[in-house]
Amino acid sequence: MDGVVDHLADERNKAQFDVEEMKIVWAGSRHVFELSDRIARLVASDPVFRKDNRATLSRKDLFKNTLRKAAHAWKRIIELRLSEEEASKLRFYVDEAAFTDLHWGMFVPAIKGQATEEQQQKWLPLAYKMQIIGCYAQTELGHGSNVQGLETTATFDPQTDEFDIHSPTLTSSKWWPGGLGKVSTHAVVYARLITDGQEHGVHGFIVQLRSLDDHLPLPGITIGDIGMKFGNGAYNTMDNGVTRNGKCVRSNVPRQLIYGTMVFVRQTIVSDASCALSRAVCIATRYSAVRRQFGSQNGGVETQVIDYKTQQNRLFPLLAAAYAFRFVGEWLKWLYTDVTQRLQANDFSTLPEAHACTAGLKSLTTTFTADAIEECRKLCGGHGYLCSSGLPELFAVYVPACTYEGDNVVLLLQVARFLMKTVSQLGSEKKPVGTTAYMGRVEHLMQCRCSVQKAEDWLNPNTILEAFEARTARMSVAVAQKLAQFANPEEGFLELSPNLVEASVAHCQLIVVSKFIEKLQQDIPGKGVKELLGMLCNIYALNILHKHLGDFLSTGSITPKQGSLANDQLRSLYSQVRPNAIALVDAFNYTDHYLGSVLGRYDGNVYPKLYEEAWKDPLNDSVVPDGYHEYIRPLLKNQLRNARL
Ligand SMILES: CCCCCCCCCCCCCCCCCCCCCC(=O)SCCNC(=O)CCNC(=O)[C@H](O)C(C)(C)COP(=O)(O)OP(=O)(O)OC[C@H]1O[C@@H](n2cnc3c(N)ncnc32)[C@H](O)[C@@H]1OP(=O)(O)O
Ligand SMILES: Cc1cc2nc3c(=O)[nH]c(=O)nc-3n(C[C@H](O)[C@H](O)[C@H](O)COP(=O)(O)OP(=O)(O)OC[C@H]3O[C@@H](n4cnc5c(N)ncnc54)[C@H](O)[C@@H]3O)c2cc1C
Fold it and tell me: Could you tell me which residue ranges the Acyl-coenzyme A oxidase N-terminal domain spans (predicted)?
């Protein structure tokens, strides 16, 4: 910031906590903080990684530019001998969806998690050196959510010792796989295995798609891109593919591991949610401190919009959620590592919980984040609608996270099955553990009364936790009782699916709240850091309580008076967070390059830069626009009647 005026300096001086220590908490450790900081600067200073022109490039130019960036990223990774951790940070700060995400994020994990030792030895060295490029081809034109409904077949031919991969219908074309359209040379293709005329369910097969010499599709394979997607730039940097037919290499997968790749990716998507959310919140918070409207007295300055209680009521719960998702993401990573180690030792006991947690939290965090990015756009008023705010593109890139890797409602229904199973086993030998341990106290939770009498009582973490546990337990038991009235349970499940989804959401919110509270029980150094995190935890929980008051009241978990006291407490928490707001978003340590937003600039110098950005638009290349002579001048001169348009 040498020689640059910091328009947010006053805001930064107000902070009541140690921002540098908060940066470490946000990053997860000092090591990760230093590594991220170094890689973020490396990316920001490299002109190849420029991204401010994405919205104005044609699809072809955009795509070619992405290929250039991916190749350059790989070159830098080799030249600088970056570790896996550093390389993945580099990908993060380059901030552009590309085929490499699917290669590293799904193709390699699918082989690691599902292929035999022999197959791994053959394919992994090639994939690690990027001598082959892979994608994950599961979804078809006709089926995405219903994996068991996939139509592509893999028929074993004992004569040739080969599998014949066949898409017999239009609807069995593989449709959506990222990287498939234009780049991938190989794919893990999911197909129904057939041997001796017998079907054995859906399995993954490694298929070569394109020649490694001239990139042409191999005989029998038709392949292309599925077309433009939502938003300019945005996810259009990615080639999402369609393909039909093919012969292939082989695979042999243990039944329980088929879904393993999805569990892994859902876990990474939860961590990613806190990144996208914090980025939008950082932009909206800084801009809200810069922007002033109304309230000027005697010719003095107007009110910063961040000082309006409505703005705080919309913004601070999002800020709190960014921190909440960060910590639940950390915990989920631990859970995933733990379940992976167990699976290697043939212990499948914790897989159902890992599946329910990754599915539910993926759904909860992505739905919230997509809505929150749009809310941040509105929090920035008209300027939020400009591409230079960074918010439209962030929304367009982010919003498919609600659909890919499992539609969010379909995933909540998986959580509901797990919850209903847990309720049905209450009272049996099998005690609920982990994230459902609270169900073990169901008798108490069904009749306990919330003890809150004054607003400050809501600051007690045990009070919050019990209210959330009572709400979830009562909702789950109520829907389980309704289910029991159906002669056919599957019919009941379909009929009651809206209630089941609501119970699942309550369960997932409880997990996030309880993991935030657990985080606060750790030793967290730094002046005021723990206090501020405590406030954010309370804001996250009490805001949910306020938004879902219907659940809490209808289950009798709290009284209307207690609901109103929670709201009073929320307002008071907003006032306490207010002076710390800018410092709390500074703790994300985002570079201006990564934020990609004029409104979110670190120095708050918004207006001159907005003005500068506007002049860069290609429309401003000429003063008189193209088309003037054909369409505007004749209009003005009333000559249109005879003109041929
Ligand atoms: C440049 C340099 C770089 C350097 C390096 C840099 C590195 C960079 C790295 C970058 C990284 C970027 C990250 C990637 C980016 C992502 C991008 C987005 C990609 C998006 C990809 C996709 O979009 S890819 C397709 C995903 N498509 C689904 O997601 C389908 C959903 N649909 C289902 O998932 C099933 O269809 C559904 C519904 C469960 C029903 O499954 P079903 O039909 O079998 O029926 P049931 O419900 O009966 O389930 C039967 C029993 O299986 C149990 N179970 C079910 N699932 C289970 C599971 N997962 N784990 C365990 N158990 C599971 C269940 O609990 C039952 O258990 P039980 O019998 O005991 O009750
Ligand atoms: C950007 C993007 C990238 C993708 N990348 C890949 C990839 O790399 N590889 C790959 O294989 N796939 C990929 N996909 C596909 C993705 O995984 C699927 O689109 C996703 O799993 C949802 O499936 P669907 O499209 O069949 O939705 P559908 O299931 O058809 O959903 C339509 C509607 O039906 C509802 N619905 C469906 N089933 C139920 C039910 N049982 N109960 C209640 N409601 C239900 C859903 O909630 C939704 O509202 C990608 C998709 C996108 C958007």
Answer: 18-133
Pick the residue whose CA is nearest to atom 33 on ligand 2. 407
Partners of 203 in beta bridges:
191
CA 176 to ligand 2 center in whole angstroms: 10
Please say whether the structural domain 116-252 has been given the CATH code 2.40.110.10: yes
Q: Residue for token digits 């990474």?
A: 268
pLDDT in tens, 19-46: 999 999 999 999 999 999 999 999 999 9
Q: Which residue has the tokens 């109520």?
A: 478
Which residue type sits at 271? S
Work out whether strand 162-166 and strand 153-157 pair parallel, antiparallel, or are unpaired. antiparallel
Q: Is residue 177 classed as helix, strand or coil in its secondary structure?
A: strand
Tell me which residue of 248, 228, 131 sits closest to 184, measured CA to CA: 131
CA distance 459 to 16: 19
For residues 432 and 449, give the distance between their C-alpha atoms in angstroms, rounded to a whole number. 23
Best mutation site among 139, 235, 238 for ligand 2, i.e. most ligand atoms within 8 A of its Cβ? 139
Specify whether the CB–CB gap between 239 and 182 falls below 8 A.
yes
Spans of all domains in the chain: 116-252, 605-644
Residue the block writes with tokens 């008798």: 443
ipTM for this prediction: 0.97
Q: How far is CA 462 from CA 14, 273, 408, 432, 538, in A?
A: 31, 27, 30, 20, 11
Question: What is the SS3 assignment for 345?
Answer: coil
| CA proximity to 205, closest of 168, 148, 258 | 258
